[in-house]
Amino acid sequence: MLIVEDEYIIANDLELILQEAGYPVIGIADSMTEALMLMDQQKPDIVLLDIYLKGKETGIDLAKQLEGMGIPFIYISANDNRSVLEAVKATQPIGYIVKPFREQDLLTVLEISRYRYAHSVEMKLREEKALQIALTDALSASGSWEQKLLKAAMVLQAHVPFDFLSIQHRKGNDVHRFNYYRVGFEEYQTISLVDIQQMTSTTVDQLLQLEPGPIPTGLERYDGDTFATFCKQNRFVQMLATTFRLESALVMPLGVGPVDTFCITFLSRKGDSYLSRHLSLLERLEQPIVLMLERALAFDEVARLSEQLKRENNYLQEEVKTLANFEEIIGRSPRLLRVFEQVTQVATTDTTVLILGESGTGKELIARAVHNLSARKGKILVKINCATLPAALIESELFGHEKGSFTGAFEKRIGKFELAHGGTIFLDEIGEMPLELQAKLLRVLQEKEIERIGGKTPIKTDVRIMAATNRHLEKEVAEGRFRMDLYYRLATFPILLPSLRERPGDIPLLAQFFARKAARKLGKPFRGISETVLSELINYTWPGNIRELENVIEQAVIINDGQSPLRLGRPLENNFFAMTTPGPMSQPDAGFNRYGQPASAKPRDMGDVKQIQQETEREYILAVLKQTNGRIRGTGGAAELLNLKPTTLEYRMEKLGIRKVLSMQSPTSSND
Ligand SMILES: Nc1ncnc2c1ncn2[C@@H]1O[C@H](COP(=O)(O)OP(=O)(O)OP(=O)(O)O)[C@@H](O)[C@H]1O
Questions:
Q1: Predicted TM-score of the model (pTM)
Q2: What ipTM was reported for this prediction?
Q3: Which domain covers residue 64, as residue numbers?
Q4: Sigma-54 factor interaction domain location, by residue (predicted)?
């Protein structure tokens, strides 16, 4: 026991009584200074404390320190006025003995206080355990961080009171603030920056620019003058203090993992809210809270990664469906070898690549080769066709949107740029991108960050960009359809793919390659391509380039009997347009027309493309029917030649308006 009493006789009396009753006394102090000195040498279990002492500090001042040190104390004092008693109560003594006292009363109070203290310590330990469990539950609950932290704040309120709680989460350069204003017993209002902006008539930009101020290195409490200084250093807190009439603060900085920091600021309207016991409770909770936050962040990361994996997986499944035919790039012509050289040079850098070339020259194949040779090959390559997406959807497709950002945006959606994080994005048909979106793409290229539609903060992205077009981009720029600044950004490293007619030497190789591939697919033997057919292929101008060659060969394999070399389904006729406009990029927006129709018949929209497809198919089926003399079923019938089920062929014929005739002397005339 330590006795702190300035009246010598009473102090002596106390010592005698205590020693006789078996309580060892470590010393008697008559002032706060002396008491602290004695406690420095030996820590007492209990302090008996008078209110008025020698010197200017009172027993109440000493009590505040004892509370911080976790040493229980009992006041021994003459009855005093109400305000002193209020202050005494606030220090949470374990007992109070009124002077003058009888020996028996003193010992009884001492006995009861000790028992109750021991009990309360046990209770406190249990309470703290329960508090830790409740905090863990709050932080591991599902929901947003805003909801989790609010739950945690509600749990803490009973132990560390606040009128306003501000939590700052910093991860590298990203800072998020969560603000909760207590409006009722168990009622809290989440205060967003926009709310603060309205309450304080500041702009969001001004708010974002407010210096967060220095964060203390450990737990710190601010009241009176220290709170004023804290506000001066921390303009955000100052604004909160003025708006919500706050007078004291308790700040708890937490380093979580290698990059995350949390700073929890409890703020109160009362000037003396935060006591040593709040500090020591938070000190004890610090490690458990760090662990809880670490776990919550790890769960978040796992959820994010598995979501990303799910998205990548869906995307890849789609990719496999559309690109199962990709095997290798065929060709040995010097023009193509030059392209390979460029691909190797640029692949290992993060430079933006612009691939130019007529339709069907293999631009996508080259984009894939660049990606596969780059350090990003382990990550995803996301392809976007700017021509096939409706203009209204491109922005959301590329950048994503927040829930409710426009009519129909029922769910948050991640854009292709976010999906491609760490990998490559391939913007095919970039020449078709609407002008307003070009400005946004330019921003991504310059700032390396994107903004979801309806989003408030930009998101950093690490994506390599590749683009391709069959348009004359310079012409598009000159005519005001393409932004010049974007063009120069994209064209950092242009790769120009030669048209097929510029590398006729590759035609036999490609033809053999496609023939083998088609034969494998159709399960037919391949008996080679005759010299006549090869020279016909070489002499054709291939306006549709490799894609057209692939189609022509596939058709030839379909009608081939598997015994003789390939024959073409129909003669290849060079049309006027293709023959008079040779050279790369020479037909900027023309579709190919292998039927020698005038250029005005080129497809303008998907309807046209469908019609041409149907005409081709119809013509093709008619040619096969002619060959089988109208016979559909059985060995050597059209269905077998076309590798289709007879019922499927009949269905297709009906769709295409080809009437079944028993003997097809003139199949075309049957329905014309
Ligand atoms: N050198 C090559 N070797 C083998 N196949 C090729 C080669 N070049 C292109 N192809 C094939 O030709 C077809 C068309 O190629 P791709 O889609 O890459 O052309 P593109 O220039 O991107 O066409 P578009 O401009 O119409 O989008 C694909 O099936 C592709 O696999």
A1: 0.49
A2: 0.95
A3: 2-123
A4: 329-558
